[in-house]
Design brief:
By secondary structure, the protein is mainly α. Helix content is 58%, strand content 7%. 25% of the residues are buried.
């Protein structure tokens, strides 16, 4: 981010930055986005309420740089080199809804926000705001033909056979489960948060639902 210079005199010693405040702020705009991706929890360890003090940011940047340089090697040596999943790689509806809360460490609220975003996108797609999120997903992927005021969603290349019906039933069940088991508990008890890894699993589930909704085509009567 910037180099810290240690200046000593007879009566005073203090730290100063090698760059100007404006230059540091401009660099921070880019570096913080990199750290959000590489070390997502860095903001929890930095006192962002103390303006003009960049020591903590520099330490966080050094950690992020080390992760970039050797993270893959460390993971290979210490683990089974299993595939990794990041929230930023999920469907845009999910990450757009969850990003700010996730980056500030509010993982349960991030899951709730992502589910709210999915419901809003589903409402916009079929033009309905008159039913609950559970009823909306059930009606959108219903096997019944569309009727006035109740359009349906169909995945591309559906042939109307048993496989297509089975897939629609699975999407209905997944959608109902997401809103009942992932969104509602956090909405009713927002004080109780969840661990990061559990929240990531929940975002992945929501991402799958979002992708099916996004790919589906609207059929109207």
């Amino acid at each position: 981010m910037t180099t810290l210079s240690w200046i000593e005199g007879d009566m005073v010693s203090y730290e100063s930055t090698a760059a100007t405040e404006d230059e540091i702020i401009a660099s921070a705009q880019i570096v913080e986005k990199i750290m959000d991706r590489v070390t997502p929890g860095w903001r929890n360890a930095v006192d962002v309420t103390r303006p003009g003090l960049w020591r903590e940011h520099r330490a966080a940047a050094v950690r992020a740089l080390a992760e970039i340089k050797s993270g893959a090697l460390v993971a290979e040596q210490l683990g089974d080199n299993a595939p990794t999943l990041t929230a930023a790689a999920m469907h845009p509806w999910v990450w757009d809804g969850a990003r700010s809360l996730w980056q500030s460490g509010h993982y349960g609220e991030a899951v709730r926000a992502a589910s709210t975003k999915i419901n809003a996108e589903l409402q916009n797609k079929i033009g309905r705001r008159d039913v609950s999120e559970k009823d909306l997903i059930l009606q959108a992927f219903s096997d019944e033909a569309p009727v006035p005021g109740r359009p349906r969603l169909r995945l591309p290349d559906e042939d109307g056979g048993s496989t297509a019906k089975s897939l629609r039933r699975g999407i209905r069940m997944l959608g109902e489960g997401c809103f009942a088991a992932l969104r509602n508990p956090v909405s009713h008890d927002p004080i109780v948060d969840v661990e990061e890894v559990i929240a990531l699993e929940r975002l992945a589930t929501l991402s799958l639902l979002a992708r099916w909704i996004d790919e589906a085509e609207v059929q109207r009567a």
